[in-house]
Amino acid sequence: MSNLLEVKNLSVEINEQEILRDLDLKIETGTLHVVMGPNGAGKSTLSNVLLGHPNFKVNTGQILFAGQDVTNLSPEERAILGLFMSWQQPPEIDGVALDQFLFLAYKNIFSARDKAWIAPSVFEFSEILKKQAESLKIKPELLKRSLNVGFSGGEKKKIEMLQLSLFNPKLAILDETDSGLDIDALKIVAENINMYHQNKGTVLLITHYPQILEFIKPDFVHVMVKGKIVTTGGEELINNIKQTGFSSFIK
Residue 39: helix, strand or coil by DSSP? Predict the structure, then answer.
């Protein structure tokens, strides 16, 4: 398999404070990677930088995605190439209906990826959306409400998974998608991540809670401390973290 994502010697700062330090990461197409680490390790910074958040300054290093240098591309350009991120805290946008937002995003992403692509009608998209929402047990009335406004934490995370299934990216960066979920919602979210991965989707799951990993089996586990990946392994690292926390990785 070829590398879908390659991060080389990446150092990043925000407000003149360095967060990531000489970070290296390779992700092969079709694999599922988990990044774990204590609070403040830089996990969310990594996800934001991969998607091109403008508040973060890349001092050194390079981000290669699908063979292309995307270090200086906008978030929109990266999304068109096939990068997707599920937010740790999804934003609320009052006055923008969720179903309308999803329809416009769907059309813009796929038409930009393929100029010959024929967009579905509003009715056709409504049927696609309804089917995907049912699989996530999302209440139909939520789709008519303003984006994430008044949604519970679990509902917001389900909407993120709905976007993942609709947009079908090459790489899904999931930033603490499990945060704030009860056990039923956690199982539904994990099921959809597994479904995406089984359909040859590539996943970078960021978490510091091992619970979701009872339902998801990663190919690789990375431990991140103070802005660097300090070790990489398999499921044995998860068991280690369950028993001793991150103390053994902090020097």
Answer: coil
Instruction: Rounding to the nearest 10 degrees, give the CA dihedral for residues 72, 76, 82, 85.
Output: 90
Which residue from 129, 122, 44, 57 is spatially nearest to 86, judged by alpha carbons? 44
What is the chain's percent helix, strand, coil content, to nearest 5? 40, 30, 30
Q: Which two tokens stand for residue 69?
A: 């240098």
Coil/strand/helix, residue 184: helix
Is the pLDDT confidence value at 251 over 70? no
DSSP for 110-169 reads HHHH-TTPPPPPHHHHHHHHHHHHHHTT--GGGGGSEETTT--HHHHHHHHHHHHHHH--
Average pLDDT value for residue range 220-224? 96
Task: Report all structural domains of the chain as residue ranges with CATH numbers, in order of start.
Answer: 3-249 (3.40.50.300)
What pLDDT, on a 0 to 100 scale, did the predictor assign at position 167?
94
